[in-house]
């Protein structure tokens, strides 16, 4: 990696949410991630930054993309990575999160990556273990590395985040990606809009630092970035919206709706996509789409986060007690 | 039995509107006299005299909503351990909820509770029986037989009866026995997977919210049925300004309606949830500060009749979980009085009114002895230092479960002595 000693040490022990980060912390992580991108693009991708360190991925929800991204990030930094597959573990036998955490903690990992269906699970884990904890998504609360990789993708394409207009479209109510992004984009001075049917907006959305609209035309007007969110299948059939057909008609991103945005607007999606539900295939694969870049930036951001949390300078300062 | 004289105390007796310096004479199980002129015939010969200068005597608290784990959840709380906690909190009578395993929905269970209480408890324990068998909301329990056996009220505890016809029949039939139907209202569909008050705070935490309407929609239905049936209806634990105004309207219409509030809804709000603190996951959920203020106002203006602890012991197996997976409920017997006294120390609610809603009014509502210091009454009382500060420490909690919302809280007002039927059951 680039000369780390030139970067200031990172001040936090865990990454539980964007809410805990200052704009300075965010920029620092993005700078580190920028440097990590080049490692992944070399033919020799392995470094020794985290050699001898142990990383455990504890995923209570299936997630091919995020889990493999964390795994690859750890391996490229030289860490020993262990995946706890919840489906085949004692978790299925009724062991509580805290008991599992205590057990894993006794194996002395250096960093725990957790994905859990309940909001606050990562924070709960962080209270009980002696190592660093990274929230890889907790219920509808936060998904900080997703927001960071989105920011990195935007920053590399647009130069900076400040003063950009970003439209976040879709199921805001259940989305941890939306919450983390709203926090991060506001912290870095972007103008944030949310576009969704009212049944998919959380209570108090008008006080969350965003402009709210039910119209894609209004929401995307002159936008620099269009972020689409995934709509879970079980929410499409009458519970929150009446049908896929109607949802796509009003909220699905197609060429016509995208015209409202700036011609060079970026189209983003955290994946996995429902083609034809929230996004048309031609747009997902079109020239404005940076969905593949997001995946690449995901590995870089996760490398940066882990390396920042495990920065030996911080340990020497005793802050890792 | 011996005679005890509590001398030079401040005597607060809402049943007679008394707030005066004087004495209380207890002879055996009864109060002989209490008030400024209690000693106008001198100190009775052979009496033990306790100087209570600067201290206050109140009728023992009557807690109308207490969840206990016996039978079925003795690791959380037994009738005996709850009674020790109650005594330390100046609570001399508790109305025990039927949410046990098995449910208190038949005569044998009522008898079991009364027998266990007689053998193991130091305070009075009055069982409330289920309205419907198994708390399932479908079939009525034997109101008459249960009442004869000693059930003081009917309630489905934590459960809300969804079926309007069931509720109508319960109110109608209970009227024949002059029995109170006490009901917590939460619309299961509207509350859905909600775990805290709906609003901005829940949204940022990513937790599903429970709208206020989930409480008020079934409550409004119940109040309409109370008007229709003329049955006695008690809104057991209201938490919203909307609910208070609904109760107030029903009362103005002359319906036989009363209302209770949990001490938590009077003293805490949704911000106390902080970073997913599961001890603050309650039912009803902690609401916004405006709702808390509305509860205080409703307490003052008489819309709310009683304050309850809603004591609900939960162990680590149900609380050491992510917030949405944790059980609702907090213990409260030991802190009920001191937390309620915050309203007195802040000059929000007059002391006489606070003690009324903690003691006299609930005793009257459920037809229980106690709640008064008048001559001839059973000597259930508490000696309190209203001004003494103390800090709630987990290590000092007597309840078998430690899920208090007031860990580390600085409270003012300490119980020094609690008497049940003249017997000292707690002494600080």
TrEMBL record, chain A:
Keywords, sorted A to Z: Pyrimidine biosynthesis, Transferase
Catalytic activity: carbamoyl phosphate + L-aspartate = N-carbamoyl-L-aspartate + phosphate + H(+)
Highest taxon listed in the record's lineage: Bacteria
Residue ranges constituting the Aspartate/ornithine carbamoyltransferase carbamoyl-P binding domain according to the UniProt record: 13-155
PROSITE patterns: CARBAMOYLTRANSFERASE
SUPFAM superfamilies to which the protein is assigned, alphabetical: Aspartate/ornithine carbamoyltransferase
Protein's pathway: Pyrimidine metabolism; UMP biosynthesis via de novo pathway; (S)-dihydroorotate from bicarbonate: step 2/3
Entry annotated with the keyword Transferase: yes
EC code(s) of this entry: 2.1.3.2
Domain Aspartate/ornithine carbamoyltransferase Asp/Orn-binding: 164-308
GO molecular function: aspartate carbamoyltransferase activity
Binding-site residues for L-aspartate, renumbered to this chain: 93, 176, 230
Residues the entry annotates as binding carbamoyl phosphate: 65-66, 115, 143, 146, 271-272
Pfam families: OTCace, OTCace_N
Protein family membership: Belongs to the aspartate/ornithine carbamoyltransferase superfamily. ATCase family.
Oligomer status and interactors: Heterododecamer (2C3:3R2) of six catalytic PyrB chains organized as two trimers (C3), and six regulatory PyrI chains organized as three dimers (R2).
Function as written in the Swiss-Prot or TrEMBL entry: Reversibly catalyzes the transfer of the carbamoyl group from carbamoyl phosphate (CP) to the N(epsilon) atom of ornithine (ORN) to produce L-citrulline. Catalyzes the condensation of carbamoyl phosphate and aspartate to form carbamoyl aspartate and inorganic phosphate, the committed step in the de novo pyrimidine nucleotide biosynthesis pathway.
Name under which the protein is recorded: Aspartate carbamoyltransferase
Annotated organism of origin: Aminobacter niigataensis
UniProtKB/TrEMBL annotation, chain B:
Keywords: Hydrolase, Pyrimidine biosynthesis, Zinc
Domain of life: Bacteria
EC number: 3.5.2.3
Enzyme class, UniProt record, top EC level: hydrolase
InterPro entries: Amidohydro_3 (IPR013108), DHOase (IPR004722), DHOase/Allantoinase_Hydrolase (IPR050138), DHOase_cat (IPR024403), Metal-dep_hydrolase_composite (IPR011059), Metal_Hydrolase (IPR032466)
One term of GO molecular function: dihydroorotase activity
Pfam families per UniProt: Amidohydro_3, DHOase
Domain Amidohydrolase: from-to ranges: 347-426
Domain Dihydroorotase catalytic: 54-240
Protein name (database record): Dihydroorotase
Taxonomy of the source species: Bacteria, Pseudomonadati, Pseudomonadota, Alphaproteobacteria, Hyphomicrobiales
């Amino acid at each position: 990696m680039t000369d780390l000693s030139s970067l200031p040490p990172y001040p936090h022990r865990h990454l539980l949410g964007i809410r805990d980060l200052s704009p300075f912390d965010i920029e620092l992580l993005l700078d580190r991630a920028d440097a990590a991108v080049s490692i992944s693009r070399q033919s020799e991708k392995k470094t020794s930054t985290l050699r001898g360190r142990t990383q455990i991925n504890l995923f209570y929800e299936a997630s091919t993309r995020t889990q493999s991204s964390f795994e690859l990030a750890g391996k490229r930094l030289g860490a020993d990575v262990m995946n706890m597959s919840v489906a085949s573990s004692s978790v299925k036998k009724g062991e509580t999160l805290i008991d599992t955490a205590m057990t894993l903690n006794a194996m002395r990992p250096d960093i725990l990556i957790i994905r859990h269906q309940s909001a606050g699970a990562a924070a709960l884990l962080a209270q009980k273990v002696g190592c660093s904890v990274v929230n890889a998504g907790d219920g509808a609360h936060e998904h900080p590395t997703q927001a960071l990789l989105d920011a990195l993708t935007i920053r590399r394409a647009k130069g900076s985040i400040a003063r950009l207009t970003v439209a976040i479209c879709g199921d805001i109510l259940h989305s941890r990606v939306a919450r983390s992004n709203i926090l991060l984009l506001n912290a870095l001075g972007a103008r944030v809009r949310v576009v969704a049917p009212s049944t998919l907006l959380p209570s108090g959305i008008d006080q969350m630092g965003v402009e709210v609209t039910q119209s894609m035309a209004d929401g995307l007007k002159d936008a620099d970035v269009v972020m689409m969110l995934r709509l879970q299948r079980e929410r499409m059939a009458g519970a929150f919206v009446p049908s896929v057909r109607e949802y796509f008609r009003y909220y699905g991103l197609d060429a016509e709706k995208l015209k409202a945005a700036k011609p060079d607007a970026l189209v983003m999606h955290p994946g996995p996509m429902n083609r034809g539900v929230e996004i048309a295939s031609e747009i997902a694969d079109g020239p404005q789409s940076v969905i593949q870049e997001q995946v690449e930036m995901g590995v870089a951001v996760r490398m940066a986060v882990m390396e920042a949390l495990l920065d030996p300078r911080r340990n020497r300062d005793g802050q890792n007690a | 039995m011996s005679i005890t004289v509590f001398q030079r105390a401040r005597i607060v007796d809402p049943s007679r509107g008394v707030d005066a310096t004087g004495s209380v004479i207890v002879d055996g199980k009864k109060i002989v006299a209490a008030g400024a002129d209690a000693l106008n015939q001198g100190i009775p010969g052979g009496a033990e005299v306790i100087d209570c200068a600067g201290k206050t005597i109140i009728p023992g608290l009557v807690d109308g909503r207490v969840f206990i784990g016996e039978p079925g959840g003795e690791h959380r709380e037994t009738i005996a351990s709850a009674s020790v906690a109650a005594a330390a909190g100046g609570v001399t009578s508790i109305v025990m909820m039927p949410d046990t395993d098995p449910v208190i929905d038949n005569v044998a269970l009522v008898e079991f509770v009364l027998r266990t209480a007689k053998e193991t408890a130091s305070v009075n324990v009055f069982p409330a029986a289920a309205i419907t068998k198994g708390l399932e909301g479908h079939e009525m329990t034997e109101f008459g037989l249960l009442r004869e056996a000693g059930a003081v009220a009917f309630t489905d505890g934590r459960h809300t009866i969804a079926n309007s016809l069931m509720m109508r029949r319960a109110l109608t039939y209970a009227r024949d026995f002059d029995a109170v139907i006490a009901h917590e209202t939460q619309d299961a569909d509207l509350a859905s997977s909600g775990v805290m008050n709906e609003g901005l705070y829940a949204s940022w935490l990513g937790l599903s919210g429970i709208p206020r309407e989930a409480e008020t929609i079934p409550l409004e239905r119940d109040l309409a049925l109370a008007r229709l049936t003329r049955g006695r209806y008690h809104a057991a634990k209201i938490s919203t300004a909307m609910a208070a105004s609904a109760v107030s309207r029903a009362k103005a219409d002359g319906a036989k309606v009363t209302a209770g509030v949990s001490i938590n809804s009077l003293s805490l709000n949704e911000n106390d949830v902080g970073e997913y603190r599961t001890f603050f996951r309650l039912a009803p959920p902690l609401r916004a500060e405006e709702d808390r203020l509305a509860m205080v106002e409703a307490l003052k203006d008489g819309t709310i009749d009683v304050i309850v602890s809603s004591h609900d012991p939960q162990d680590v197996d149900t609380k050491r979980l992510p917030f949405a997976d944790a059980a609702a409920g907090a213990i409260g017997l030991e802190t009920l009085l001191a937390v309620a006294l915050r309203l007195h120390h802040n000059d929000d609610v007059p002391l006489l009114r606070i003690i009324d809603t903690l003691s006299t009014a609930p005793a009257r509502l459920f037809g229980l002895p106690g709640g008064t210091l008048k001559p001839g009454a059973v000597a259930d009382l508490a000696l309190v230092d209203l001004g003494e500060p103390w800090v709630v420490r987990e290590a000092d909690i007597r309840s078998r479960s430690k899920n208090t919302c007031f860990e580390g809280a600085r409270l003012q007002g300490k119980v020094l002595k609690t008497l049940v039927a003249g017997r000292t059951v707690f002494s600080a």
